[in-house]
């Protein structure tokens, strides 16, 4: 079975800037995997292995989600894991109410089809690199290495993605869902 997730594809202009950020910080970090520019996204829900039948059902539930379009801001870099050798390096995304509402509605849609619920609090982010690769230690602040600010971008839609782990880019958009207000 293929693995899937629900997320927000990053607009091309933002992806280009994030790719430039990667180039600026590569000399200062030691990661095995760098996210491809076409794979930048904001995860709403990781699903794991999903049958084709469940994908079709999930698409119906996701189609009914009503959340108005909204803006989100990217606020520099952060990481998951130890400060000296962070597991994941990411661009921080501000958690605004419409994003929180969208996340909650995606969780409810997934729960209706018996997908596991996320137990951790939601920390929106866009992964730039993963898997620290050696014993070197991060010894500098990376935020002062990026000089192209990304103030915000408009979220008008979200996507269901299929994961192709051996490919580059790895993520295929299966279906796009336009954000809409109740009654549209």
UniProtKB/TrEMBL annotation:
Gene3D superfamilies, per database record: Cyclic phosphodiesterase
Keyword Hydrolase: yes
Active-site residues (renumbered): 41 (proton donor), 125 (proton acceptor)
Motif (HXTX 2): 125-128
Domain of life: Bacteria
Pfam family, one: 2_5_RNA_ligase2
EC number: 3.1.4.58
InterPro entries to which the protein is assigned, alphabetical: Cyclic_Pdiesterase, RNA_CPDase
Transmembrane segments: none
Keywords for this protein: Hydrolase
UniProt motif (HXTX 1) ranges: 41-44
Family, as annotated: Belongs to the 2H phosphoesterase superfamily. ThpR family.
Protein's recorded name: RNA 2',3'-cyclic phosphodiesterase
Native species: Alkalibacillus haloalkaliphilus
């Amino acid at each position: 079975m293929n693995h899937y997730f629900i997320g927000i594809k990053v607009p091309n202009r933002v992806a280009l800037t994030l790719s430039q950020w990667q180039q600026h910080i590569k000399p200062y970090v030691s990661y095995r995997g760098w996210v491809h520019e076409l794979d930048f996204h904001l995860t709403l829900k990781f699903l794991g292995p999903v049958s084709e039948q469940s994908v079709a059902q999930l698409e119906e539930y996701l189609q009914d989600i009503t959340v108005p379009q909204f803006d989100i801001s990217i606020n520099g870099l952060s990481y998951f894991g130890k400060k000296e050798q962070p597991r994941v390096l990411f661009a921080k995304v501000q958690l605004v109410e419409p994003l929180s509402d969208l996340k909650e509605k995606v969780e409810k849609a997934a729960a209706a089809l018996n997908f596991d619920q996320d137990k951790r609090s939601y920390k929106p982010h866009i992964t730039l690199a993963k898997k620290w690769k050696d014993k070197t230690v991060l010894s500098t602040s990376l935020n002062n290495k990026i000089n192209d600010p990304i103030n915000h971008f408009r979220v008008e839609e979200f996507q269901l993605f299929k994961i192709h782990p051996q490919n580059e880019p790895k993520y295929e958009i299966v279906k796009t869902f336009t954000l809409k207000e109740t009654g549209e």
